[in-house]
Structures are given as structure tokens and as C-alpha cells.
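Justification of resources, computational component.

The compute hours requested in this renewal are based largely on the per-chain cost of generating structure records like the one below. Each record pairs the submitted sequence with a full C-alpha cell output. That output is archived, and it is also reused by downstream analysis tasks.
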Amino acid sequence: MRPAMAFGALAATIGILCDDVAMPRGADWYRDAVARSRAAQPGFGPVYNGPTPCAFWKHAPREKPVAVGNGVPALLVQSTGDTHTPYDGALGMHAKLHASRLLTVPGRVHTVYLNGYSPCARAAVNAYLLTGALPATDTTCGS
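The structure output for this chain reads:
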């Protein structure tokens, strides 16, 4: 992708995100968020918890936030040390998706399925994709 095209895609993404949800505007909020994230996310914590252009967005979001919920069985797979999608986010999503099961994979890895990191996770996802059946309870794969 050429730099101008990449910038255009980034600008569009920022516009969508900033119109989706209001962001805190105070520097103290971001400083505290970065400090809280450092232990669990030493690499990407400051990146994902620092201010974005949305902190300076002039307009309120155009729509109310989408209410998350489901009646369809969903399997959520999350590693405990993922630096891009923190485990706390998976716990929050799991709490909102009442018909879900959470498969926890210990370790610092992103994209757990099909990367060879966890045969346990691969087997659970394959079973879910083939049958639609969820594990009876939330499960943690061995390390």
C-alpha cells in the first residue's frame, strides 16, 4: 500500500472510531491508563492506552453505543498475555455474550488458533466449527 493510501485508510478509521464512542479528554486519564497497563502490556499498553485523535474530536458520537448481547452460542478464545487484545477485554465480552464460553490459553501470544501454539485451543475451535457445540463450561488449556 502506498503511503498516501495508508494515510487515507487511517483517516477513515479514525473518523469511524471517533464517531462511535466519546473518548476522555483529560491528560490525567491517559497518563493513569498507561501506568495501569504497563505491567500486563509492557509493549503495547502505552500505545493502546495513550491519547488518540478521538480525544480531541469536536463532535459527540452520532449514535448510541451498540448494546452487545447474543442468543447464539459463541466460543471466545483468548490468551492471558495477548499484547494486542488484553485478557480483560475478553472477560468483558464474555460477560456481555451470555450464550458464550471462554477458552483461556495461558501465555503471551496473539492469534491463538492455527498458529501451533496451543493444540488444546485448536481442537476446541475445530470441534466448535464442525459441530457448533460449546464446551460444557469455561475452559483453560494447559500451558
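Helices lie at 3-20, 27-37, 45-49, 87-96, 119-131. The chain has five helices and three strands.
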